[in-house]
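[audit] Reproducing an earlier prediction to check determinism. Same input, same settings, fresh worker. If the tokens differ from the archived copy the diff job will pick it up downstream; this log only records the rerun itself.
[audit] input (178 residues):
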Amino acid sequence: MECRRMILSDFDKSGRKRPLPITGSEFEVDVDTVIAAIGQIPETECFRGNGFKFDSSGAFLVDPETLATGVPAVFAGGDSMRGPASAVEAMADGQKAAKAIDKILGGDRLFPNEYRDPLKGMKVSYDEEAYLEERQRVAMPEVPLTDRYHNFKEVEVGYTARLAVEEAKRCLHCYRQE
């Protein structure tokens, strides 16, 4: 797979920094499999005529509260119903659909430990000067290379509660415009 290094440009009118390619930074990576997750409208032709409804772009029309498609026991979320969007929105859709499915199966749509308890009680102070500073991304802790061979263990092990808060402090001002 051919890759190219990028640099973040200045803030645009949407408040986000846009990536720009670095000329001459191309390199190749040997891969066996590539899973493309680029945010596109999926092909839905095979679902036509089976009770599903679609908007003008071809995305599924769903109940906004449950993400039910109108076909019994079939739900849609992420790019298939919103079009190109973020992975965070797709994960939130999955959680919303899971709650609706839980109710269909006789549950109460309430999930114990829905949020991690250690993060619930954390107090985060607000410092205006620190908030306005550009922060570097907090490195994701990873399993050492020597422990990655011949298994399917997750490589990224996740943030500790302290590192998650540090990353959130960096991320919470990304909408800021110059």
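[audit] rerun output stored. Observation attached for the diff report: Strands lie at 2-11, 17-28.
[audit] end
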